[in-house]
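idk why but the lab printer keeps eating my pages so im just putting this in chat instead. protein + zinc ion:
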Amino acid sequence: MRLLLSIALTLCSFLSFSQDEVIIRVGLFDNEIVRSAKISINAGQYEVRDGSTPLAQVSRNNIFSVTPVGQELVLSRDGIKLGTYKRLIVASKQWESSLRLKVRFNTGREKTNIYPDNLVITAKSGALIIVNESDIERYVAGVTEAEAGKGHEVEYYKVQSVISRTYALANMGRHSTEGFNVCDKVHCQAYHGMSRWDENILIGTYETKDHVLVSSDIEMVTAAFHSNCGGHTLNSEHVWRKPLPYLVGRRDTFCMVMPHSHWEKTVSKTAWLNYMKRDFPLDSFEDSLSVLAFFPENKTKFFSDSLRNLKMTKMRADWKLRSAFFTIHEYQDSVQIIGRGFGHGVGLCQEGAMRMATLGYEAKDILHFYYRDVHLIDRRQIDFFREDFD
Ligand SMILES: [Zn+2]
Ligand SMILES: [Zn+2]
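predcted complex ->
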């Protein structure tokens, strides 16, 4: 089966497929209350529409402002009111157009970002609901920047683009009840538009255009990633209960020289023991000693939710620990927690992947290192492979 799949993948790379580009609808500033918006052109050409009717052409110097009144929107151009509407679309008239959007929140805080393609604005209970309708690749470049930061190798940006694209396409229904596909927060993937893109990010995204990671049964994978695994990644079921065949822990020495490979935290011994006693009884004096001299081998006995009631993920959140990979040492009235890595530890280790890219590994090698038995294919070929192997 795997040989057949490899042959089919090779053949397929010579075939060309034509299908429409994917547009993604991103809910901006999710869970924040936006009281007003100012919009102007950053690049390209635009018009403002109410449904399909153009209300106004937009010239480069115009500043449009939108404020909510109940369920409606008041639209002004350069300070002069144009009318009241239920829904406004600031629509691009040519490829590669982008808008500057400045919003003011209910707290008085303001934020300015640049977004590609269209903005769709409605009002709900006196707040603006703003959706960025963007070509998926321009969105992926924005997510790659927000999730990875600047200054990395192109091969690393290819890796981040593939996993961000895969995640987005596999989660297009995540916010369907709210009228958009994904939000712009870490709940989905962080996205601040295109204000800080750099050239390497764009190359990374466009050189992997349309490519996604699929499992051996040609399903798009849950492309989990985290900052630093601390030397060993984890199986999916160790963190989220559900095992997935491509999210399997492995040793990773690449990240050990990177900034988030180690951490330390000191907390009060009394607070630590009280916390442990609250969530589950320490049966004996030996148990108490063991939670004060905790090593990863004791995890199953003391902290596994299958035997006791304390989940490592909860413990991480309660004590604001960078990872669940740590040892504990008793020191006078304190316990010293010495940890490794940063994040949940499942899937791709970003700092390990960055290091691999610096050492000359290619994006596909890095993806295969962190995800077991996966294939990198063009999203438009998924149906072709499914039919072939069903
Ligand atoms: Zn979300
Ligand atoms: Zn790692």
